[in-house]
Each structure stands twice: as structure tokens, then as C-alpha cells.
Amino acid sequence: MFFAPNFKIEPVISGNFIGEISAGSPVNFRNIFINPHGNGTHTECVGHITAEPYTINQCLTEFHFVAFLVTIMPEKIYESDYVITENVLRNKIGESEQTPAIIVRTLPNTDEKLKKDYSGTNPAYFSEDAMLYLNNRDIVHLLTDLPSVDRAEDGGRLLAHKAFWDWPMIPNKKKTITEMVYIDNVVPDGLYLCNIQIASIESDASPSKIVIYPLNKL
Going by fewer Cβ within 10 Å, which terminus of the chain is more open, N or C? Predict the structure, then answer.
């Protein structure tokens, strides 16, 4: 969770009808209340930071990409800030093959990420120059286990989001950011075929499921 109400599922109630088999209904008929940005893995488009109604369903029209998975230790730059900078990325990625997608797994990497409430914890984030570096590598899809690519409290500057999408200059509507993924330590760094699965909803972001398949170099 990240500064959002808890995910909730509850039966539809209409008069004497309760949409729960345990309450006598012939079917389970439930409402789902979710905040994509705060309740788990989600994929967002440039509409996340614009007044214009760009939606993830309009922007993400292809769903399979070659991706490079890289594990990174964020750099401590202030007393309590850990940041993925251009130098950190450059030193780790080096001369690796350019791919349209990159998956950034951060250290320490424990299964606590599956249930952690990040609210008020000042988690690690990306610097503006790191995003410009990814843009120079023609990254279209950025996936990370962090709850946000920007500092949790940055006065609304959103430098990393804006740099990645080149907003407001020439926004790239095909680019996406996926946050709160979890990649187990048993999965090695390297090349993968990445599948981003979203719900077809007209919103700036959707809950998403990420599936990766290892690729062997020919």
C-alpha cells in the first residue's frame, strides 16, 4: 500500500438481495474497490501527470517486449534518501544490449515487498538524470519494484515522471511505467520476454500482472 485506502471486496446489496452465496445468493456478485497506484502492481501512462485524459487502455496497445532485468542498490545521497541515479544505472547496465523495456529490481530484495505499507517511509526513487539516461537508451517501458519513481514527498515536482514522458514538451503516449512489481531473487538478471497484462479500462493506470520468460542469446 502507498498512501491509498485499503483494497476492498464486498457483496452487492440491493433490498433483500446480498450477492454472496453464503448469504443465500445463487452467485457471488461483488464490488471491488481498488486504487491502482496504491494497492499493488500497476501500469500507468502519461495521463497520470496530465490534465488531458490519456488512458492506459489507449496508450498501451502492444503487450510483449524484450526486457533487460537488472538488480541495483540505490545510492544514498542524503541522510535518508536512496536514489537510483544515472551513474548507478550506467555502471550496472554498461554496454548491455539495448531493449525497449527495462525491469529494475532494487536491493535489499525480500518478500516483505509483497505486503509492505510504504506510506510515510520515504522509499527509494529515480533521479531526473536517471530517467534522461533511460530515454537516451530508447526505453519505452520501465518496470520497477519501487512504489513510485519519484520521491514520495517532492512538493509535486514529479521530476522523474516528467522526464521519462518528456512532459510537457513532446509527451510520448506509448511509454509506460509499472511500479510495485516483485521479482524473486531466484530470477537472475538478464534478457527476458516481458508480458504486461492490464485491465481494459479508460483510466490513467490499471492494476497489472507482469509475466517474464527467459531469452537465450542465439
Answer: C
Q: Cell for 50? A: 496530465
DSSP 186-197: TS-SEEEEEEEE
The CA dihedral of 201, 204, 208, 214, to the nearest 10 degrees, is 120
Pairing of strands 82-84, 75-76: antiparallel
Phi, psi of 38 (to 5 degrees): -115, -10
Tell me the backbone φ, ψ of residue 83, rounded to 5 degrees: -130, 140
H or E segment at 94?
Answer: none
Task: Retrieve residue 51's grid coordinates.
Answer: 490534465
Tens of pLDDT along 5-32?
999 999 999 999 999 999 999 999 999 9
Residue written as cell 542465439? 218
CA triple 201-63-95, angle to 5 deg? 135
pLDDT by residue (tens digit) across 58-116? 999 999 999 999 999 999 998 889 999 999 999 999 878 899 999 999 999 999 999 99
- Is the domain of 20 the same as that of 85? no
Do both 19 and 118 map to the same domain? Answer: no
CATH number, domain containing residue 205: 3.50.30.50
- Which structural domain, as residue segments, surrounds residue 160? 42-214
Is the Cβ–Cβ distance between 59 and 176 less than 8 Å? yes
Regarding whether 12 and 51 lie in a shared domain, the answer is: no
Q: How many domains does the chain have?
A: 2
Q: Alpha-carbon distance 17 to 4, whole Å?
A: 30
Per the CB < 8 A criterion, the answer to whether 194 and 67 are in contact is yes
